[in-house]
């Protein structure tokens, strides 16, 4: 481990460089200090464990991590970056990877790295990237020569939030929207991948054409091809007329494939052929039609893991993964929690004709301290549930605790669970599912939309399941 001396210019911040090639790291660090407009104090460590020890003792503004040098910190890149994020105390993390390891770098970014650069490294380019990151993320101790200017954007094309992570996302959407290249959106459930897709369409040159969305997880596999590419009359039982698919309907506009990871492998090959040729053939038809669409896809799963598990074609991934956008989870932008909560409160109070106007201090503290595994959707559902269930002018912590059914369900039991009663009847899965859904409907006074929102499913799912329960009851 070695500490590199800063240059004679004014010292600004600290930079941690993780690279097992110490000689290369020292050269990079020295060149970086010369290239930056304000010279940082650079600390070089050879591996992930040394970095973790240093981070426990000191605070750094920037962490530059060679991904291969983190092997001693955790079994995989994702776990290693997650550990760095926890120790980093808000530092900007820049990953370095070989040019052929872009997918590995993207895994690092999903785990919390802010950006990555490919080897070989140009100190001047690296200094410029650091300055750009510091500018975007508004770090008070950042290594930027000039502070960010202008007010933060709080609302953008359906998104709400003024955190640095959202400012970067808004800027990314603005740049990417003008292109016709495919976009691959990743992010946890509830982060707003559908909002991002609509924003890309609305901000782009195809905004005057159709935006057609298709959820690959919600359509049965045997119907997915006809939904995507269309069907001709008589192609199968029930096909009474010619019908366009989503690809044709979106001609000239945008085709959004949500939950792309759920698409059947056999259909993935046909989608790949469509992307390569721009031609679609309806089910039951030999002739092909030329369509012009911009394809945007999204998934809440790790695409590289799906490829490894042979659930997703690698060639299709690289055809779609041209312009990647990752949506940050709500826990990584805590300053947006109350901004979102107030936004949802104003909307639902107006819709339900309630008098709610704000949150008590204890309620705000509870909201800001929550982990939000369901992200923005979970927060949105909670605020809507409170507005429907309670009356008043201010939401307090008691209302939050009473309405937060997700946290109650996830909380461990404070007492030892009883031994299983083998004499008790175990109901079939569909009857247990029926009981859960019907209890939710009763809780919301028969409002299926509200029950669906609380259960994080669509109202159509409830209607469909009710019909299937009736058929099962008749059959039994």
From TrEMBL:
Keyword field: Activator, ATP-binding, DNA-binding, Nucleotide-binding, Phosphoprotein, Transcription, Transcription regulation, Two-component regulatory system
Lineage: superkingdom: Bacteria
Ranges for domain Sigma-54 factor interaction: 159-388
4-aspartylphosphate sites (modified residues): 66
PROSITE patterns: RESPONSE_REGULATORY, SIGMA54_INTERACT_2, SIGMA54_INTERACT_3, SIGMA54_INTERACT_4
A Pfam family recorded for this sequence: Sigma54_activat
GO biological process, alphabetically ordered: phosphorelay signal transduction system; regulation of DNA-templated transcription
InterPro entries documented for this protein: AAA+_ATPase, AAA_lid_NorR, CheY-like_superfamily, Homeodomain-like_sf, HTH_Fis, P-loop_NTPase, Sig_transdc_resp-reg_receiver, Sigma_54_int
Domain Response regulatory residues, every copy: 14-134
Name of this protein: Sigma-54-dependent Fis family transcriptional regulator
Native source species: Devosia oryzisoli
């Amino acid at each position: 481990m070695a500490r590199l001396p800063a240059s004679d210019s004014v010292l600004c911040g600290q930079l941690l460089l993780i690279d097992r090639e110490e000689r290369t790291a020292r050269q990079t660090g020295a060149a970086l200090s010369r290239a930056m407009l304000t010279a940082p104090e650079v600390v070089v460590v050879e591996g992930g464990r040394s970095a973790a020890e240093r981070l426990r003792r000191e605070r750094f503004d920037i962490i530059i991590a060679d991904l291969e040098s983190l092997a001693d910190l955790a079994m995989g890149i994702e776990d290693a970056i997650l550990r760095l994020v926890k120790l980093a105390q808000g530092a900007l993390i820049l990953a370095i990877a070989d040019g052929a390891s872009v997918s590995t770098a993207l895994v690092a970014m999903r785990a919390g790295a802010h950006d990555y650069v490919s080897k070989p490294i140009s100190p001047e380019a690296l200094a410029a990237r650091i300055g750009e990151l510091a500018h975007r993320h508004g770090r008070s101790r950042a290594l930027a020569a000039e502070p960010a200017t202008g007010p933060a954007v709080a609302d953008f094309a359906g998104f709400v939030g003024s955190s640095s992570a959202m400012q970067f996302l808004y800027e990314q959407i603005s740049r990417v929207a003008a292109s016709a290249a495919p976009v691959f959106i990743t992010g946890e459930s509830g982060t707003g991948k559908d909002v991002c897709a609509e924003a890309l369409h609305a901000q782009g040159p195809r905004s005057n054409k159709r935006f057609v969305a298709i959820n690959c997880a919600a359509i049965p596999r045997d119907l997915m091809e006809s939904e995507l590419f269309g069907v001709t009359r008589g192609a199968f039982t029930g096909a009474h007329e010619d019908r366009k698919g989503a690809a044709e309907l979106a001609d000239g506009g945008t085709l959004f494939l949500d939950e792309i990871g759920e698409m059947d492998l056999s259909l993935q090959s046909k989608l790949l052929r469509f992307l390569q040729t721009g031609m679609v053939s309806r089910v039951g038809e030999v002739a092909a039609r030329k369509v012009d669409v911009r394809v945007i896809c999204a998934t809440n799963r790790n695409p590289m893991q799906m490829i490894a598990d042979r659930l997703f074609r690698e060639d299709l991934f690289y055809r779609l993964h041209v312009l990647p956008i990752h949506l940050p989870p709500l826990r990584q932008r805590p300053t947006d929690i109350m901004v979102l909560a107030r936004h949802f409160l104003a909307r639902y109070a107006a819709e339900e004709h309630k008098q709610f106007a704000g949150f008590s201090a204890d309620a705000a503290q509870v909201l800001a301290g929550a982990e939000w595994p369901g992200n923005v959707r979970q927060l949105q559902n909670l605020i809507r549930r409170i507005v429907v269930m309670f009356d008043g002018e201010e939401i307090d912590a008691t209302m939050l605790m009473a309405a937060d059914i997700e946290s109650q369900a996830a909380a461990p039991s404070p007492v030892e669970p009883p031994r299983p009663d083998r004499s008790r009847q175990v109901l079939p899965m569909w009857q247990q599912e029926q009981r859960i859904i019907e209890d939710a409907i009763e809780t919301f006074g028969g409002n299926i939309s509200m029950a669906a929102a609380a259960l994080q499913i669509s109202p159509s799912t409830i209607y469909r399941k009710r019909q299937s329960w009736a058929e099962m009851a008749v059959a039994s």
